[in-house]
Amino acid sequence: MWRRRRTYTLRILLLVFFLWDSLHCISLHLRHTAALRAPPPPRNAKRVYIAAQHFNDARLLHDHWNAALIALVQELGVGNVFVSIYESGSWDGSKELLGELDAELERLYVKRAVTLSELSRADEIAQQQQPGEQGGGWIETPNGETRKRRIPFLATVRNHVFEPLERLTAEGDTTFDTVLFLNDVVFTPEDVLKLLDTNGGDYAAACSLDFSKPPYLYDTFALRDSSGHEAVMQTWPYFRSYISRYAAERLLPVPVASCWNGMIAMPMQPFLGNSPLRFRGISDTLATFHVEASECCLIHADNPLSATKGIFLNPNVKVGYNGSSYDAVHSPDAVMSPLHMYRSIWQNRLLRWFTSPLFKEHIVCSRVRKWMKGTKEQERGGFCLINEMQILFESGWKHM
Questions:
Q1: Which of 49, 190, 215, 334 is 20 to 30 Å from 271 at the Cα level?
Q2: Residues contacting residue 66 through CB under 8 Å, at least 6 positions apart
């Protein structure tokens, strides 16, 4: 009798649980469907410093990016923007297409700096600090070779977009409100306006969602949830932490510890002054312990505004690395059915119940402790670190 009653109670609890989840998914589906009819974002009222770098992006530039940037400049207001583009080592026609973009921006009287580097990737590697120099970004691989680390190289390339800002600052022009970083993605002016309006415009950083092969999120290297953990899955609702997951499910600004994801807006203030915020990699001595971190995560760890204003991922802003991906995530068919949501929520739940980031994070933390003990140095971007070594080649990069 007691066993029968216990079985009956368990069935009732499971039924209630099922009904609760079902109603929750129906509610979320209605919210996501309503988002398709959301009013347009407010018009721009900020001065925006647009920063981008390109490498072998000819197809994207031709098909989408150049036209989108022109439309964006016109939407934001020619007098409200400065465009800084740095191209590095391309051999696929990117230089010619960016030259055409530069000419069109000149025709519109847009203030800009479009730098087309004549250096090859090999030349750029050689120009940066050499093995043995302090902070040179080189590392000895397990097979005994000395190789250029990928992240310090990328950080140096990214920092080129700030060179015009430094000249403007020296001339007394420090009136920009926002830095908008545009990756090699398909976007529209409306996407940018939505991004700028994230959390009512109050943030240390606001990021889009980026997709290469929908529905899988692309950039998880720099993404950390509100607890500093990696995404638990590449599909919706993405996150392990309750705070981030709750917001992502409901299309609210998602509090995160770090993000980049194709397009990001940040207040200009930290990028000015005597110690301006810049991209960087972790130290070479720490990297020898087989750990690495994205320069796009470390910049949030270094940003003094991160702790006070917060970093948000905007789930209503979606960009793609090609036209088909962009169209797919913006199609009405991209709205998940309640059943699809139910499955995804349970997939997320099971991953949270039966997997843990603690083992991976413990390995990294133990290596950091050894490094700290030996060098007496600190790394404030500990949550960005992963168990990898990434080295650069002229034609790409690989894990070691």
A1: 190
A2: 97, 98, 100, 101, 104
Mean pLDDT of 119-132: 67
Q: By C-alpha distance, which of 325, 317, 329, 221 is closest to 265?
A: 317
Helix axes 94-107, 66-76, angle to 10 degrees: 20
- Torsion angles phi and psi, residue 356, rounded to 5: -145, 140
How far is the C-alpha of 219 from the C-alpha of 373, rounded, in Å? Answer: 32
For 313-360, the pLDDT digits (tens) are 999 999 999 999 999 999 999 999 999 999 999 999 999 999 999 999
**Structure tokens belonging to residue 8:** 């009956």
For helices 189-196 and 66-76, give the axis angle rounded to 10 degrees: 50
Cβ burial 262-290 (10 Å sphere, 16+ → b, else e): bbbbbbbbbbeeeeebebbbbbbebbebb
Instruction: Return the minimum-mean-pLDDT range out of 87-96, 138-147, 212-221.
Output: 138-147
Tokens 């899988």, residue located: 216
Asked whether the beta carbons of 156 and 288 are under 8 A apart, the reply is: no
Q: What is the mean pLDDT of residues 291-299?
A: 98
- Which tokens is 217 given? 């999120």
In a domain, 277, yes or no: yes
* pLDDT attached to residue 128: 62
73 in a structural domain: yes
The number of domains in the chain is 1
- Is the CB of residue 375 less than 8 Å from the CB of residue 260? no
**Do 217 and 317 meet the contact criterion of CB atoms below 8 Å apart?**
no
Query: Is 393 domain-assigned?
Result: yes
Gyration radius of the chain over CA positions: 23
CA 48 to chain centre: 19
Asked if residue 347 is part of any domain, the answer here is no
In DSSP terms, 263 is beta-bridged to 182
Q: Which residues contact 118 (CB under 8 A, 6 or more apart)?
A: none
Which CATH number covers residue 79?
3.90.550
Please report the DSSP string for 219-285 in residue order.
Answer: --SS-EETTSPPPS-SSTT--SSHHHHHHHHTT--EEEEE--TTEEEEESGGGSSSS--------HH
* Domain extent for 74: 48-334+356-399
Integer Cα distance of 374 and 99 in angstroms: 50
Reported as a single tens digit per residue, the pLDDT across 189-235 is 999 999 999 999 999 999 999 999 999 999 999 999 999 999 999 99
